[in-house]
Amino acid sequence: MTVTRFAPSPTGRLHVGNIRTALHNWLLARKAGGRFMLRIDDTDAARSREEYVTAIRADLAWLGIDADGEERQSERLTLYEDAFAALKTAGRVYACYETAQELELKRKIQLGRGLPPIYDRGALALSDAERAAKEAEGIAPHWRFKLDHDEPITWEDGVRGAQKFDAATLSDPVIRRADGSWLYMLPSTVDDLDMGVTDVLRGEDHVSNTAVQIQMFTALNAARGGVQHLPHFAHEALLVGSEGKLSKRLGSLGCDAFRERGVEPSAIVAMLARLGTSLPVEPIAERAALIETFDLSTFGRAPARFDDTELERINAAIVHQMDFVAVSDRLPAGMDEAGWHAIRPNLAHIGEAADWWRLVTGPVQSGEFSDEDRAFLSQAASALQWSEDPWRALTSALKEATGRKGKALFLPLRRALTGMDHGPDMGELLPLIGESEARARLENAAAD
Ligand code: GLU
Question: What pTM did the predictor assign?
Answer without folding.
Answer: 0.92
